[in-house]
Batch of 4 targets.
Target 1
Amino acid sequence: SSSSSTAKTLKIGSSADFAPFEFQGADSNEYQGFDMDLIRAIGKEMGTDVEINNIAFDGLIPALQSGNIDIAISGMSITDERKQQVGFSDPYYDSGLTIAVKADNNDINSFADLKGKKIAVQIGTTGAEEAKKIPDAQVKEMNSSADTFLELKAGNVDAVVNDKPVNDYYMVKNSDNTVKRVGEKLTSESYGIAVKKDNTKLVGELNAALKKLKENGEYNKIYKKWFGTEP
Ligand code: GLN
């Protein structure tokens, strides 16, 4: 049953460089990941088609504001600053920042140890903001989170500051043991689905669909597919 009066296709924006939330497979262009499965299930629940557009993370809020997309789902943390610019659904995933370093690095064991270090982050993210607060750190802002790991592997930076689930997934997928995650989470952040500010109708529809998917077990199924456990 459709809970939506919206018949058109919803235009979704996502920065498809953030496995396991959104990425393109090595041999297919299809968008995959937790967010992608979730938004397709939400679209189904709302009775609308979804069209996914790959947009750099720092371009998502501008794309919502200009009306180029209806919805952004991209591991986007709900922050007070962003709440001034866009509307958010209820939180759908609990996250937070962690550090990754090269496997043979034994000096960096916590955020305090990042003082004066070279750090790679993805531009426009909460990780970038937190890294900039670290005294004397040289922060290198990359276009994608994948690029932050390349910088680390190349030895151009000492550390990467990135979302915990993304760092963890990278460690599992790139099992060559050249990088490791260190320390505890620095922040507690919740991901939300973003829409144009004041589009309360769409927020209501997203929240209703999200609630339904949590009740009928579909959310848990998608969660288990990507994280191996129930939430
Ligand atoms: N959760 C972080 C943020 O919202 C990173 C998101 C991302 O890189 N896709 O800034």
Target 2
Amino acid sequence: CGGGCYICVPLLAGSISEMLREMRIAHSKGADMVEFRLDHLTEFEPQADIPILLQEKQLPAIITCRPVWEGGKYNGDDDDRISALALAAELGADFVDIEMQKASELISALQKPSRAKVIVSHHNFDCTPSSEELGCLVSKMQSTGADIIKVVTTARSITDVIHVFQVLGRSQAPTIALAMGQQGLISRLLTPKFGGFLTFGSMASGRESAPGQPTIEELQDIYRLPRVGRETEVFGIIGQLVGYSKSPLIHNRFFQEIGYDGLYVPFLVHNFKVFFGAFHPLNFTGFSISIPYKEVALECCDEVESFAKAIGAVNTVVRRRSDGKFIGYNTDCEAAVGAIEDGLGGVNDGVSPLFNKLVVVIGAGGAAKAIAFGAKQRGAHPLIANRHYDRAQKLAEAVGGTAITLDQLYELQPSPGSVLANTTPIGMFPNENETPMPKSVLKHYSLVFDVVYTPKVTRLLTEAEELGLCVVSGFEMFIRQAIEQFSLFVAKPVPKQQLREVMLNVM
Ligand code: SKM
């Protein structure tokens, strides 16, 4: 990578021939190195198998034979295992990996001088210890004579990843420091920025050697990790359903399109305030805010742009370059309302097609606020329906609309020309069979809009189409909000039409 970080594909095949086949695929997919996981071989004859692997290798290789007691599959004799690793070092392996407890045994068994570099590793499958504990561990590992240190922990919360970054910052030797699990994903994506020696990319989804590993394709095609270095600016989406977001795909492509040194990652966050406080010192540049944090994000910003303040929700937070302050914006409102207006034929002589129309909004969160506010601004009458009536009432009061219960929503017979907007995640992948509105009561509306964009046409929209109604997909809102957001991220005008075409191509 730009930061000198390698992309390594672990090979978990059960036979030597299959492992070599996978190595060739990994090579063609852009791997910088591979890890031969000897412990996954169903039959293993070190004297016969290791020479074949090393003669045939097309890439620098790590030789690993992980024992069961450290999370691997090898359950044979440890002395035999160490002899096999020493043999691999002698026959030209670039790296041999050994667990901390057995490091001195392997290092003393190696021929001197040895061309192979020794990776001394430690795995914690339970948690991520404190920075102090990790610091002690790293010193101990360094004292074994390791060439490279490898510390892999388990992230129980995204803030654990900060300890892992601190290991990279403090270590004197080349270091691999990663956190396993969904919450640890960003440790794998951001390691080039923090000086990590390598990151692992699996051959395919389901072929991970540790939980939370992205695939080599994701590392190459979505995050384009090889160009990431210490200067790369970090952006990302904060939310609870970020795994389904297309924002990483889009914003990383946008960076490429305009030649900007930025990396955009998913931040899977369960407590916004804790995350925001903990990550503040890392000087990340910008965030998209998604469900359910658009309101709490507004509270955490140093300043909020007046439009977003009036809406009461932000979906974009950018660190101002001049003073480092976080400024909140809302790009949802114009994106959604503009898409609905265009669905109704567009603004005519300065008059919005929403003027005097009833806009029924399902939900009362950040996206609902943006749409209700925008509709009111266009002269429409917002009607808010929500599972928690008190929240509907609060939003209705704030925008000058009316609140109704879900039962009232299902019985409503709105006047012709009315618009229905779903702002809840109901119907989103993987729950595509769900819908926030029974089909039988949809027929009264002229246009139905859904903020959900995965799938592009939700069940709600399919049923509306079947009834002959006009529909607007959340995909259109997604495109518009992302382009405006991107312009705020990079703090300059962007070629909007070009970016729109990029989005249509990649999605
Ligand atoms: O407001 C947007 C946000 O900026 C990005 C997003 C996503 O990536 O799914 C959805 C909306 O909440």
Target 3
Amino acid sequence: TKQQQQQVGAGPCKGLSKASQHRLWPEIDRISMEQLRYARLGVGEGGWQLFAEDGEMKMYKREEEVNGMVVDPLKACHVVRGVTGHEMCHYFFSPDVRMDWETTVEQMTVIETIADDTLVFLQVHKRIWPASQRDSLFWSHMRQVPDHNDRDGHDIWIVCNHSTENPGFPSNNGKCVRVSLTVCLVCQTFIDPPKEGVPITRDDITCKITYCSVVNPGGWAPASVLRAVYKREYPKFLKRFTAYVIDQCKDKPIMF
Ligand code: 6CM
């Protein structure tokens, strides 16, 4: 809004992201908060089917097709010990470490820095035979949200990724078909009641995460191949990513 812009322009940004001055801001704000509500809905209703389970990690999908293309929504829940939601979101968002944990990406470029917490990425994905290679262009936004439902005031961190367009990087310019995606990672930190006078350690911290993803392949790709790739790659991603964050954080001070 004009008022928000004036507040931001006038000086310290009063809790608002610098991205609030950007043309994409209304969309970024709306989709991120929609995704937060969607992530927090349970999997009891809505026809979610469990397709992968490993310890506390559970992955659900709904089989959906649009014009014959697989767009199965995915939702995963996991509990990760020893890290905070802020840390999880930091490593999911940061382009500096993307290639350390992401195994579906061949090339990653930040094409625009909207703010410290809001970037636009162009990624070229690995080719899945026999389909054409895919790329994706999306904004990525990270934020902390107060949890009004939680009396203990555990803050929630979210990263939301959502496809966008940029005239400088048109789709189908070259060998790639552009996918469209909406992805979110929502994390909440729980801290065991501290003992009197003893500082909080990583042993006292648990992070509950929800990861949601909907990807439209953007053009023909055989449904059976795509479903087989997703079934293999999503659990692999979540296990690898969470192990990566635990490993990166273990010798660092806790980032609340
Ligand atoms: O959410 C994930 N990664 C984020 C950062 O890269 C971002 C990316 C979403 C990509 C959506 C999938 C595009 C599908 C393109 C084809 C995949 C090729 C797989 C080839 C494997 C050999 O939100 C983690 C995404 C994990 C996807 C399995």
Target 4
Amino acid sequence: MRIDIISVLPELMESPFKTSILKRAMDKGLAEVHFHHLRDWSTNKHRQIDDEPYGGGAGMVMMVEPLDKCISELKSQRNYDEVIYLTPDGITLNQKIANTLSIKNNLIFLCGHYKGIDQRVRDLHITKEISIGDYVLTGGELAACVLADSVIRLIPGVLNDEQSALTDSFQDDLLSPPIYTRPENYKGLEVPKILLSGNFAKIEEWRHEEAVRITREKRPDLL
Ligand code: ADE
């Protein structure tokens, strides 16, 4: 999978892709992420990419021309499955969206700033608008990292067996059951006996019951 990220602050997104599982995905050639500095597509000598809104009002608007030029150039090089705009007014990211995106080949992520982008960029290029939650960040960069992480870890071969995505919370609309590791007893708090029984059918049954119980308790909306 190739992800092209367009931003005015690409440096904000460097370390997540240079660390741990995402780095390994890159090293294995399973994912590649390319950053594009929007100011490189500015049409004036001040490298301006934003301007005042028509009709007045607070905040600046990201101009249509640099964004159109940047996205058009990328599109002339390969076919993109989606051009995604990270914005608080998009659809809220969930595991299902991450699953769907994880089987795509080429994605563009556009990080918004200021008041947002000129509507004509949306009309011309954007195929999906995604929010990572009902709160407002200073820009789309951290949201782009969250989206990329949620998608890349699902690409076959990125996680090993122990990290398997199949047992994630949300993968079957349930939260994860409690998990334990050594010691068996810590300050009087015991690991549930069933987990020490070696009866894997019973353990699976217990885990499912616990997952349902915890989901009912914390996130009844998922059931
Ligand atoms: N940009 C600013 N806030 C955002 C959010 N919650 N999700 C996605 N992009 C954003």
